[in-house]
Specification:
The protein starts with a helix and ends with a helix. The protein is about 60% helix and about 0% strand. It is elongated and about 75 Å long. The protein has about 300 residues and is mainly alpha-helical. The protein contains 15 helices and no strands.
Length: about 300
Amino acid sequence: MTRLERKYRAEMKRMLSLPVHAASPAVYLVFGQLPAEAIRDLEILGGFGQLAMCSPDLQNITDIIKNNLEVYGEDFLGWSGLVRRTFTKYSIPADPLQYLQYPWLPDRWRSHCREIIVRFWDDKLRKEIFDKTAVKEDGTKESSLKYLDVTDLSTVKIHPVYNAAGLDSQNATKCTVVMWFLLGVFHSKSLQYKMKKCPTGQCSCSSQQEEDIQHILLFCDHYSEIRDKFLVELTFCNTKLMKYSNDANLLITSFLDPESSKLPDEIRNSWTSLDNVYSISRDYCYNIYKKREKLQGSLEINQN
């Protein structure tokens, strides 16, 4: 299961054009996808529900499962032991034997199990992200996921950033860049330096500050022309932003996730058009990314 889960995560990140070091709990939630383990457990419980309502010609299989459930516990290596362990894992009330004696309709049973499994994994993944983003008492911890709002995210619905991109391939490409910033995996010099892939985390602009996400999106003079254009457009979509013009993290969150619960209510409720905001966000992040790629290419040529 561990190897399958690892391969499953890698494939999901590849599909989203995310690097392998992107936080897996966050990827499951933004992509609206259950982990492989959860899907396996749903199949186990779904199969159990089918057996409980099986046709007469399969009754002998049901009898075997019933006998094993009566004799063996969770440690049993057979299928009945797997069922018991899955019941315990998700705190499903009552004993599996009771469901065999008083079976549910298969569709209703599967729907019920899916609700339980989704709730379990949503809570588990959100907690893992919270543990990564929680600030220590000394205030020293800062997570790459600090801009991600997991309050309303679920393993059964895709992130609004992806929804807003729709089926347009160009929008989807731009959306990927937004998600790099939102998940804190954009390959800034600061990140590359921490990963020991760059000799310094310092930006090549005149400020010579650390090139992190905040610096790239709000302060680097390489992108001042792009920034001025799109910040004006964003402000037209929500004049309340002017009140928070000095709050860097809030401005970044407004760009990356305008419906985030991390934003004040007066901002979340004052967008003139969310479609326009998401479009501005995609264009802003993508234009910065493309210009940075061009600058990086020029620097490498000059160094050679």
